Amino acid sequence: MDERTAAKPDQAVIGSPRRSPSQQRSRERVERMLAAASALIAEQGSDAMRMGEVAERAGVSIGSLYQFFPDKRAIVWALAERYTAESQACISAALTDVRDAEGLKQAFSELVDIYYQLFLAEPVIRDVWSGTQADKALRELELADSRANAEFLVAVLKRLRPDTDPLELETTAFLVWQMGEAAVRLAISVDREEGDRLVEAYKRMALRELVGA
Amino acid sequence: MDERTAAKPDQAVIGSPRRSPSQQRSRERVERMLAAASALIAEQGSDAMRMGEVAERAGVSIGSLYQFFPDKRAIVWALAERYTAESQACISAALTDVRDAEGLKQAFSELVDIYYQLFLAEPVIRDVWSGTQADKALRELELADSRANAEFLVAVLKRLRPDTDPLELETTAFLVWQMGEAAVRLAISVDREEGDRLVEAYKRMALRELVGA
DNA sequence: TCAAAATGTGAGTAATCCTCACATTTGCAA
DNA sequence: TTGCAAATGTGAGGATTACTCACATTTTGA
What predicted TM-score, i.e. pTM, was given to this entire model? Predict the structure, then answer.
């Protein structure tokens, strides 16, 4: 929730270039650094991870750490990049040979399950991608807000579809709402034209789910 | 991306209780503090916001700031809470008198537009809720990853629905993918049972959109 | 009127990130 | 082998910044 010193006011430049390990020895050390960081993130979260602790656990000096990683975020980024590479391979394998609708259903369902299990089981992944990181209290507020808003939707749905299971309506409304927030956040992250398309697509999708049509 | 000192290892306790302004004078000062924080967040983002700067702009001492806000995050939280309160009122008004499917379509569509416009226009809201805040570089990585994964889906969809506009397929796939990530993140934030329901609901919703059924 | 409560202040404390000047090791051409 | 440049290793210290605290001032209410 704030960057430390030294970081000049230049802002997130992804990660200024640092030496990349060319010798066997340094490659092993970098692996140890990443392993140490991973363990610490699993234990306490990336926010609480201290650079000094990473260095100590990896058995290297703080200076060595900064020899290969420009800053703290770069370490988290490196871990995240590995996970994305792995998961892309997995996704590619699952989807490339899909030929019909039934196959897509199968493959998609499995992929979602895998993703879900991964998030449940891997604290590091959870930490790194938890809404692309976040403030605990803010996340709570957001969830509570989303739930409250979903309630208004549930009230409407109960009137429109009195024969549907209320629990299902609840789930649907909550999900639709949360996805709306995700859709809007996505939309503002891309150029305006694509953003507009995404928001429209979300509306169609959500309404199809809500009123079925 | 890291908490400063003093914060003992107790972890996010939402915001330890601080004095709440009871006199007119202090209420006005607290308003000034929030306004200053809001302006600074709009200018540089909440990460770059410095407590000293907030105090200076509000025309109060650093000590006064901490008299009413337990820590830096509490200020952002207070701003976020206001926005959620406002938006809830708006949502409630829009949805309470919906009586039929057509009315829901209208109201929902309008709400989404309002939300979208709000995010586009208000830097503070964008900052506070940008995935519940985040690391720029990580967000980039996530988006790139999501896009790459969506491509695999697009390839499949092009085979299954060769007559649909490719741009639409692209949009759908990207959206579906991003929502899957949102759904999983949501699922792990709630208890297991509800999480499972949400993931299943997402699958149904996504597949209905992808293969239409 | 005046004491207690509320509020205001800002220099100082405690971390923490990151740098840098200098030491050590490795790769490799002569 | 030798020697030298490049790569790598080190950790004390610089630079910031969130947050505290002992004390001053103002407001409240009996």
Answer: 0.90
